[in-house]
Amino acid sequence: MLTPEKGRLESLLQGSSSNVESLLTSNPECLALQHRLSKSKTSGQVLALVADELERMDGINLATALHRVAKHSKSYQVSQVATDPRYTALVDRLGAYLNSLDGVGLMNTLWALVRLNAAAPKWISELLDRCISSVDQLEPKQLGQGLYCVYRMSKHAAPTEAVKALQSALHGQVRASLDHFSDSHELVSVCTSLAKLGIRDETVFSALGSRLSDKMDDFDMEDIAAVSWAFARAKFTDRELFRKIRESLTVRTTECSVKSLVSLTWSLSKLGETGGEEDLFRYTLAPTIRSYMLEYTVQDLCALAWSFANANVHDVDFMSDIAHALMPKTRDMNCQDVCSAVVALASLHYSHKELFEALKQQSFRLMHTFTPLQLSRTLYGFGVAGVRDKKLFYEMTLTSIDKLHLMYAKNVCDILSALMEAEYLIPGLTRPLLDHLSRQLDRLGPTECVQLLTVVAHVEPSEQRSSLGEAVAEQLRPKMKTTVRWIPSGPEIADVLQSFVLLE
Question: Where is each RNA-editing substrate-binding complex 6 protein domain found (predicted)?
Answer without folding.
Answer: 184-419
